[in-house]
Amino acid sequence: MRIVVLVKPVPDTASGGERLRPTDWRLDRAAVPAVVNANDEYALESALKLTEAHGGEVHLVSMAGANAPETMRKALAMGAASGTLVSDEALGGSDTVATTRVLAAALRGLEYDLVLAGADTSDGVAGVVPAGVAALLRLPYLSYAAKIEPDPDARRVRVHRISPTGYDILEAPMPALIVATQALGEPRYPSLKGIMAARSKSIETRTLSDVAGSAAGDESAHLAPGKVGGAAATSEVVGAEAPPPRAATRVIREPADEAARQLVAFLAERRIV
Fold first, then answer.
1. 3-state secondary structure of 163
2. Do residues 133 and 22 make contact, with C-beta atoms less than 8 angstroms apart?
3. What pLDDT digit, counting tens, does each position of 241-259 carry?
4. Is 85 helix (H, G, I), strand (E, B) or coil?
5. Which helix (H) or strand (E) holds 102?
6. What is the separation of C-alpha 36 from the centre of its chain, rounded to a whole number of angstroms?
């Protein structure tokens, strides 16, 4: 099986170094260490397990800055075979619409049986890019997968999708796009052997014009330099401010009945009508 996993380098929230640029309120990514988006790691782990069970290999696709290969090496160390990075200065500040179009165009140049993606990213939390990619590529879209059961011979895949009442069973022809969840299992840690092997694995870097050439029909017009990036974004951050300092904590230590009474009174005082 040939599986593509969409991955994104995101700011490492544990570094404590997140900074916004006052000129445009965009994250200064050069000043913040990057890691592989956590939800994408769950998708990658699932893809690796599927290729271990059915044969094949995993390929990464990412749209990010020029320093992204360093972050992508961790995903390669986990077991992915190769990667494609779409990187271009014109893409800086792109919104989810442009990101969707770029990733879809990048996928058009690849062969795959499945595309896996995380539910959302920690720096954007939109959760709409995988659905948009599936729509542009006319792929079956199977969301919130807790279990993935491909049948390569029949060219079909079955997914247990998490629902409010348990799960639904969806079945679709391959190729298909699947959104992974944490229910698929904890991502593995890269082994020393994997880390060493990742140094020699290939990451192909493609520019905006490269992927625009792979776009279908009039989609390439949406990938012109003036149609992507911050200037063409459909949303804009107009300001940012730190949250107010946390107020003093009130601890209730009375017996249960009295504690419940005080808690209700506390909430009633702060109720917004």
1. strand
2. no
3. 878 888 888 899 999 999 9
4. strand
5. helix 96-108
6. 9
What single DSSP character describes residue 184? Answer: G
In the structure encoding, which two tokens stand for residue 95, read together?
């919104």
Which is it for strands 114-117 and 2-6: parallel, antiparallel or unpaired? parallel
| CA distances (Å), origin 122, targets 59, 113, 147, 204 | 22, 27, 23, 25
pLDDT digits (tens, 9 = 90+) for 98-130: 999 999 999 998 999 999 999 999 888 899 999
Token pair listed for 266: 């506390």
What is d(CA 242, CA 249) in angstroms, rounded to the nearest whole number? 20
Handedness of CA 121, 239, 96, 9 (dihedral sign): negative
86 contacts: CB under 8 Å, gap ≥ 6: 61, 62, 63, 64, 102, 103, 106, 205, 206, 207, 208, 210, 211
Cα distance between residue 254 and residue 161, in whole Å: 44
Grouping H, G, I as helix, E, B as strand and the rest as coil, residue 18 is: coil
Strand (E) positions, 66-165? Answer: 82-86, 114-117, 141-151, 156-163
Half-sphere exposure of 218 (CA within 13 A, CB side): 0
Strand, helix or coil at 17?
coil
CA-to-CA distance for 221 and 227, rounded, in angstroms? 8
How is residue 104 written in tokens?
A: 């879809």
Reference 62, options 244, 175, 204, 248; nearest CA is 204
162-171 pLDDT tens trace: 999 999 999 9
Distance of alpha carbon 36 from alpha carbon 59, whole angstroms: 15
